[in-house]
Amino acid sequence: MISRLRTMWGIRSRRSARRPRQAGLAGIAALPVLAAAVPLTPLVAQDTQDARVDEVLAGVQDSIIRLRETIHQNPELGNREFKTAVLVADHLRALGFDEVRTGIAHTGVVGILRGGLPGPVVAVRADMDALPVTEDTPYPFKSTVRTTYLGQEVGVSHACGHDIHVAVQLGVAAILASMRDELPGTVKFIFQPAEEGPPPGEEGGADLMVAEGVLEDPAPSAIFGLHSFAEMEVGKVGFTSGPALAAVDHFKIRVTGKQSHGAAPHLGVDPIVMASQAVTAFQTIRSRNLNPLEPSVITVGIVRGGTRFNIIPDVVEMEGTVRTYNPDVRDAVERRMGEILAGITGAGGGTFELDYDRGTPATINDPELGVRMLPTLERVVGAENVVALDPTMGGEDFAYFANEVPGFFFRLGQVKPGGTSGGHHTPDFQADNSAVPVGIRAMTNLLLDYLKEAAANPRVSSEGSAAGWQSGRPATE
Ligand SMILES: [Zn+2]
Ligand SMILES: [Zn+2]
């Protein structure tokens, strides 16, 4: 899927062969207004469905929260989610899932639940990985796990709330398994490794899952996902129609000059001066080369060079990130970085290498799916608790799924009312247990409503069959 290209400037570029199908934010004005959202088919017996979900949830809630605490206490880094994957697979098998596949994209798990009635296939995804962050929370179930990461001894914790995501999805699995005979279609449960990125030198995450065929056999017609949100109270959910999270790229630059005495710069070529000029000039890409209405960020996060105050070094290394939404803007930023480096090092007498690694594409919530499903969120948590969120320049590899099939990704409030949480990826990040049942109710009803609405309004493909349709499994005995 990934190819490495070398251009005339010695720029190495790593990019996905697939071109993302999203537009930039400039197209956002054309998206449907969320408040006008109306489901295509009135959902019958809605009260009955909601009551059934709540009834089953009441029975499983405590055990799911205990699972959340177990996962929280046993966090595992990306591509190393061994115990978490066993816990997940055991849970799905105990629920009587039709199929449980393991070892996908290293440690991923996929469970297939076929309903008793014919209908479409829908997928739901939770990420399982933790982070090299030493937890500092008052939780009795806090993590004390330590490991070695990139040569350093680090604490490991669920500082991005992926333990909540797994627990919610296990709860959804429990409820839908108990309602399977009346389920019109098939639900594919995807438990994904390495959302935060695989360790250097490894592949992993949503990209690898898609490459390994996770969206085939059976192919879903839509995918749902959620992320806990440290800036939102439990009980609230957030949604962004259209572009929601940015594309995330990572670059490494090596500027090479010629070493000399600090008092004799005319005898060398100073890479620190060239690198400094490049850092400053990069900021003119945003301000001078791009449409001001198109979002973009270029951040140089690392500058490394020199050994002594009176020596001009021969090399400066830099690393940073680029965040964009519009694929054309992404192309333009990469191109201009190369041109700027070529111009500055050419003028200064040095050379450079730019290793531009295209990471996660932008996460785009399918506008039409958003219009169809937002009423469900409003019904389940109350319209006043559904917050329309602005797009952010953060990223999420759910994008790889949402580039293949229409995606619906929302934020789940996690802060205990009256409590606090540190930000994502910080030691005092705190996602309260009470977020779990809210997430379960929301996601279960989204999947049920999607299946029921899609089963009642099949979208017929050009071959004359309903896209992704699955016949119902025989009713359980
Ligand atoms: Zn994160
Ligand atoms: Zn995360």
Distance between the termini: 44 Å
When the domains are counted, the total is 2
Q: Write down the overall mean pLDDT.
A: 90
Number of strands: 20
| Chemical compounds bound to the protein | zinc ion
The assigned CATH architecture of the largest domain is 3-Layer(aba) Sandwich
Strand order of the largest sheet: 3-4-8-5-9-20-10-19
Helix content percent band: 25-40%
- Structural shape: elongated
* CATH domain fold name of the largest domain: Aminopeptidase
- What is the H/E order? EEHHEEEEEHEHEEEEEHEEEHEEHEHEH
Quickly count the helices: 9
Biggest beta-sheet profile: 8 strands, mixed
Uncertain runs with pLDDT below 50, 5 residues or more? 1-44, 461-465
Reading off the top of the CATH hierarchy, the class of the largest domain is best stated as: Alpha Beta
SSE-based structural type: alpha/beta
